[in-house]
Structure formats: C-alpha cells, structure tokens
Write a sequence for this structure.
C-alpha cells in the first residue's frame, strides 16, 4: 500500500459521497418507476416531478463528484507533489456537501414555490437537469473554481505541464464556463432552451466525454502501464473527434425549439458522426484487453473501464444515432426513446468510468503489494448492473417505439393521443419490465456497496488474492 | 443573411483539415504533437463556428422575430396548419380576439408572459411535461397545448366554463378534481392570477415556429382577418 | 407514415449496432490471430451496409440525405481496419 497524498484522501471522501448520492439517484428512480405503474403511489406527498428531479439531480451531482475525485486522485501522481490548495479543497468539499444536503431537503419538503424570483433563487429553477436554485449554482461555480485553481496551481508549482494536464485544464475551463450559460432568467422559452442546451449538451456530449478521456487515460497509464506518449496521442485523437463532432452536434437539440432551419442539417450531419470517437475507443479497448489478456492487479477497475468503452458506444452511439436524423426525430423527440438513450448513455459513459476510478483508488488503499483486487461480489454487481441497465433500456426502447408510432406518427401528438399511446400494452407492460430491471439494478448496487466497503478486507478475498499473488 | 447548412458543414470540415495539415507538417502522424495540432484546430474551428451561428440564431429567435412572436400575439387567434412548400406545419395568426375577455397592451402582455414563465419554472412543469419536446415524459408535451382539441371537447363541459381560456384556468387550479386519466396532475396551488399567466404563456408558446414539431397535429384554421 | 418512421428508426438502430459489432469483432479477430473472426466481422460490415441501404431506399428522405447516408455506410466499411492500424502503429512506435 502506498502512502497517500492529502489530495488522494480528499478524493476518497468525494468517492464515498458520490456513492451515497448514486444510491439516492437509484432510490428516487425506483419511486418514479413505481409511479408510472401506480400513479396513486405517493401522489400528493412526493409527486413524480419531485422524485424525477431528485433522480436526475442526484445523478448529475454524483457523477461530477466522481470526476472531481478522479482529478484529486491523479493530480499529485501526475505532478509528483501535493495539491497546492488542499485546505481550500477540503473546505470546498464540506461546502459542496452542505449545499447538496440543503438543496435536497428543500426539494423534499418544500418541493415548489410561487411564481417569483424568490423561488428561482431559493427553491428551484425548474429547468430540467439544472433545477438547483440560483444560490446553489453560485456555490457550484465557487467549488468548480477551487478545483480549477488547484489543478492549475499544482501544475504550475510542479513546473510540469504535461499534455494530459493541458487537456484537463482547457476542458475544465470550458466545462465550468458553460455552467454560467444556465444561470439567467428569460421569458423567451426559445432563448431559454438555446442556452440551456449549451450547458446540458456541451457538458454531456463534449466536455464530460473529454474529462472522462483524461481520467481513463490516467487510469490505464497506472493500471496497465501504457506509455504516456500513447495515452497523449490517443487523447488528442479523441479530443479531435469528440469536439469535432460534438460541438456542432449540439444542433440536434435545435431542431424544434424555434431556432432556424439550418440547424436541422448541421445537427443531423454532425450528430451522425458522433459515434466515430466511440468506435475508436472500443477498438483501442479491445487492443488493450488483448495485450494484457485481462490480467491486472485490479480486475474490477479494468472491467469497469472496458464497460465504459462498450457502454458508451451502445448508449451514446447506437441509441443516439437511431433517432438523431431530423426526419425521424420529428416524431421520436420527447418520447420514451429519449429516456432509453439517456439511461444507457449515462451508464455507459459516466457511471462505468466513475466505478472504474473508485475501484482503482480502493485497490491502492486496501490491497497490499503483490496482491490483487478480485473476488466474487464485484462480479455479481458488474453483471447485475449490466443486465439491469440493458433490461431497463430494452423496455424503454419498446415503449419509445410504441409512443413514436402511436402518439406521434398516427394519432397526431395531442393530449388524447398521449393517453392512448401510454395505455397501449407495449407501453404499459414496458413500464413494468422497467421497474423489474430497475430493482435488479438496485440490488446489484447493494452488492457493489458491500464489495466496496469490504474489498481487500474480506478473508476469502484475501485468500484468493494470495493464491493469485 | 441566410445560412446554408451544407456550406457550414463543408467549410468547417475543410478549414479544420487544411489548417491542421499545414500547421502539423513535418510532424510524424503517430506523434502526439501531430494530433495535438489537429485537436486544437478542429475544436477551435467548431467552437468559433458555434459562436458565430449563435449570434445569428439568438437574433432569429428574439421576441418579435419571424419565428418567435411578440407577447401581444396572445390577443390574436392562433392556428397551426400544414405548409406544403416547407413540408411542415406552421403557426398562423387570425383576427384579434383577446384573452380572458380583454385585449392586452404590449406592456401588459409582456408582464403576463414573464410572470407565466416564472410560474412554469417555479412549479417545475418540465419534470413531468415536455415543453418544445424537452423535459420529462410522464405527461403530455405542451408545445401546442393551447391548440389541443381536448380543452373544448372535454374540459370546457367538465369544469363548466364558457371559453377555452377560462376552462384552462379552472382546470390548472384544480387538476386533482378533474382527472382525465389515471395519472392525475397534482394540485400545485396556483392562484387565479398565476393560472391566467400560465394560460397566456401556453397560448404564446403555441405561436412559436418550431419547424413543424409536433407533426401530424390536427390542423387548426383561423378565420380571415 | 408510422410504418415509414418505424422502419427508418429500426434501420438506423441496426446500422450502428452492426457497425459496432463489425468494429469489435474485427479488432478481436485481428488481435487473437483468428482470421475466422475477422472474416465473420465482414458479414457485420455487410449487414451495416444493408441496414443503411434500407434507409437510403426509403422514399421519405431527401436525395441529399440519401447521398450522405450512402457515402457514410460505404466509408464505414474501411473505418475499423484503419482505426485498428492507427492503434497498432501507435503502440509499435512508442512501446519500443
């Protein structure tokens, strides 16, 4: 076991907090899934809108926390020194956690306010994914600035600005700068959604992808010993492909919000190219798997890293492309098809990446030199989560097809058309299957939690480790 | 200025490629340095293009533009018809009919719409419904909700109102009392004023040119001016 | 209408799914030195091409879009081998 930098201890705090919020995400997801089947469940007490808001907000926050953890874990390794503003970093952690707790309590017990600026500042902004009230937005920006300050400061202090750090710094500047685009009020909903997508799309389909590229690059360097020059060259290839297709791929969100018609072509074209970086990633993953024959001191970290490459291709690539052309999207936009795509893409691209990083950090803190991190529980969680997510996505895809065909293409997108489609067996049954696989996913999460808590500490795991070691 | 999408696509790709190759000449194509240039140039070209397009788009969707009408449009009759030339449905405007029994001045209409947007955000509509197709999928899309036939056919008789806007107002204040299906909208304690602003907002939103989304919607004609 | 959209969506789904399968199998085949797998991957390349062709043959899309899709399914036939070469060459150059 290596001696940890303070920064890495901070990373572990972030990881554990992220994991708790992951659980909250799943819990509120389950409640929402039940409400699809039995709308009276918690009706008037904890309405769908509140559960759904908590479901997606917990996700955004825990993924961000996982990324911050990844940065704090690898930053001292990359620069060979302690992070410069570590005290500030720890302070920011407590501020972040405190703010999240307050926001969640207000969401749960206040839920909504009257139509004025007080509500927007202190209860909710009511804009999907970035519902957090304005005061919390400012807090998030402050935390982000501290993270950015620590990255830049540490790089400067170590006089070692590597290519990976360069990409990270530029990406963080964009990532956090973009958040500002979501912090204003306008009565014009077209303008509102135009900037709202700058935050949501340019995070999820551009800056987050690159950030995960950086973190996975570091992971592979430390886990498999891949030479730095390969990691850097490949990272640049990925940046070129992700930004080259993803920035103007933003256009696929500008088809129907009032924006001019040229976005139909620009968005359709560039978003059709968005699977390219994902194919490239998968091919490289297969190469790495082949070279190392899946042998490593940290099995779960490696397997989750592979799940990331493949999951990203399926979730973002396959499920994204099928409804990205404007001619198709005119009918499928805003149906369960988007829910299917969203679930698989977030899991593949970001959940898997965070779990890989988490396992890697645990391996370093819990497993002695010469031993390996392995065992049975992580495999159960791994397989269970993959079955769970694909089951949910398959169900939602069937529902999405039905909704697109019935509500949109046949009955004409009215209120009554919506109800008719929702009552169709392809949708009603699908929602039951979604809940079933959601429960499987949740149980797998419980196994994952058990494994993370005990990995490297269990007698049987150590025994197995000794044999292999 | 009109922007052709194909020109934008070809130009961005070509410019990225040419500048990258010129700046990276002399570097081996397997070296990180080569790809660093390509990544920097491609990202910059795309980002700059996005910024330029943003200037154009924000202008094109400002209130009072051809695509996004002024708030006073709530005083007019609003329809939604198929335009064969565009091969898409588009909003059309008829004679002045007012809303809630009065014609709203420019300033009044603006205040109404602003308040309506605040109410919509404060009640978190987007986490059940979708607006312009974005949001959650637990409840119907509201893009053209003002034009939905259900208000006249079912809700007006149900709540005993004499006009569509009155019916919408009463329904929005008591959605739990007037269920239309097993999924009932919860009572979000809208005041009468708040409910009116939401109705105005929905009417205004239905006047936005959304490139034909939602498609296949039943046509709504307006009377001649 | 519903049927046209249904088919287009399905073709699009299969196109990228087979494209992914082609890339994965091709890479696995090349790595493990199993030419059989690489050959099998070509059948997915063909399926990818056919799925895309399904979109092209639909009367719903404009000529320009058909041309773009046709070009991309043709170009994609070469993408996995090219990407594989890039990865292999990169490792060769920097690992020694």
């Amino acid at each position: 076991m290596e001696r940890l930098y303070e920064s890495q201890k901070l990373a572990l705090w972030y990881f554990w907090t992220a994991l708790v919020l992951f659980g909250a995400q799943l819990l509120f997801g389950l409640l929402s899934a039940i409400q699809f089947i039995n709308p009276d469940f918690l009706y008037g007490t904890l309405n769908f809108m509140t559960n759904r808001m908590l479901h997606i907000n917990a996700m955004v926050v825990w993924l961000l926390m996982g990324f911050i953890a990844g940065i704090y874990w690898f930053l001292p390794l990359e620069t060979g020194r302690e992070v410069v503003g570590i005290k500030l970093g720890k302070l920011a952690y407590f501020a972040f956690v405190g703010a999240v707790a307050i926001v969640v309590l207000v969401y749960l017990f206040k839920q909504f306010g009257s139509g004025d600026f007080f509500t927007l500042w202190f209860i909710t902004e009511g804009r999907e994914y970035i519902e957090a009230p304005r005061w919390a937005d400012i807090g998030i920006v402050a935390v982000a600035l501290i993270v950015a300050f620590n990255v830049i400061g540490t790089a400067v202090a170590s006089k070692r600005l590597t290519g990976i750090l360069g990409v990270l710094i530029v990406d963080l500047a964009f990532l956090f700068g973009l958040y500002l685009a979501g912090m204003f009020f306008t009565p014009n909903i077209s303008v509102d959604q135009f900037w709202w997508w700058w935050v949501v799309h340019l995070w999820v389909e551009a800056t987050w992808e690159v950030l995960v590229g950086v973190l996975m690059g570091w992971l592979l360097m430390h886990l498999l010993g891949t030479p730095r020059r390969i990691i850097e060259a490949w990272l640049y290839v990925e940046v070129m492909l992700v930004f080259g297709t993803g920035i103007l791929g933003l256009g696929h969100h500008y088809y129907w919000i009032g924006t001019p018609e040229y976005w139909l072509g620009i968005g359709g074209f560039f978003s059709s190219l968005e699977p390219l970086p994902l194919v490239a990633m998968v091919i490289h993953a297969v190469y790495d798997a082949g070279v190392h024959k899946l042998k490593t001191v940290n099995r779960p970290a490696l397997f989750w890293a592979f799940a990331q490459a493949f999951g990203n291709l399926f979730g973002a690539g396959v499920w994204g492309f099928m409804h990205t052309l404007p001619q198709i999207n005119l009918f499928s936009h805003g149906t369960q098809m988007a829910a299917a795509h969203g679930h698989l893409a977030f899991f593949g691209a970001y959940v898997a990446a965070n779990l890989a990083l988490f396992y890697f950090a645990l391996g370093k803190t819990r497993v002695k030199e010469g031993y390996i991190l392995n065992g049975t529980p992580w495999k159960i969680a791994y397989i269970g989560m993959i079955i769970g997510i694909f089951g949910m996505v398959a169900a939602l895809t069937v529902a999405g097809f039905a909704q697109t065909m019935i509500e949109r293409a046949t009955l004409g997108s009215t209120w009554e058309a919506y109800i008719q489609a929702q009552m169709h067996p392809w949708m009603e049954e699908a929602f039951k299957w979604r809940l079933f696989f959601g429960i499987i996913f949740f149980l797998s999460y419980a196994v994952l939690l058990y494994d993370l808590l005990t990995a490297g500490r269990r007698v049987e795991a150590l025994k197995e480790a000794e044999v292999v070691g | 200025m009109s922007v052709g999408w194909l020109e934008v696509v070809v130009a961005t790709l070509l410019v990225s490629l040419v500048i990258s190759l010129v700046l990276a000449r002399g570097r081996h194509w397997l070296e990180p340095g080569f790809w660093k240039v390509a990544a920097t140039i491609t990202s910059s070209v795309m980002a700059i293009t996005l910024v330029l397009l943003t200037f154009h788009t924000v202008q094109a969707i400002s209130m009072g533009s051809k695509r996004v009408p002024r708030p006073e449009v709530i005083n007019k009759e609003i329809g939604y018809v198929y335009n064969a030339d565009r091969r898409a449905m588009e909003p059309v405007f008829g004679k002045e009919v007012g809303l809630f029994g009065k014609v709203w001045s420019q300033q009044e209409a603006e205040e109404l719409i602003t308040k309506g947007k605040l109410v919509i955000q404060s009640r978190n509509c987007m986490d059940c419904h979708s607006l312009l197709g974005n949001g959650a999928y637990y409840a119907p899309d509201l893009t053209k909700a003002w034009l939905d036939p259900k208000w006249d056919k079912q809700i007006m008789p149900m709540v005993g109102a004499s006009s569509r806007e009155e019916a919408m107002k009463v329904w929005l204040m008591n959605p739990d009392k007037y269920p239309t299906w097993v999924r009932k909208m919860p009572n979000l304690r809208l005041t009468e004023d708040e409910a009116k602003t939401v109705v105005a907002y929905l009417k205004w939103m239905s006047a936005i040119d959304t490139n034909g989304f939602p498609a296949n919607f039943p046509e709504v004609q307006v009377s001649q001016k | 209408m519903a049927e046209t959209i249904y088919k287009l969506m399905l073709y699009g789904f299969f196109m990228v799914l087979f494209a992914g399968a082609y890339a994965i199998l091709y890479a696995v085949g090349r790595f493990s030195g199993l030419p059989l797998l690489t050959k099998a991957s070509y059948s997915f390349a063909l399926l990818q091409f056919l799925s895309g062709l399904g979109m092209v043959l639909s009367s719903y899309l404009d000529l320009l879009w058909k041309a773009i899709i046709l070009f991309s399914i043709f170009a994609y036939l070469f993408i996995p081998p090219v990407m594989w070469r890039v990865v292999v060459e990169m490792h060769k150059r920097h690992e020694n």
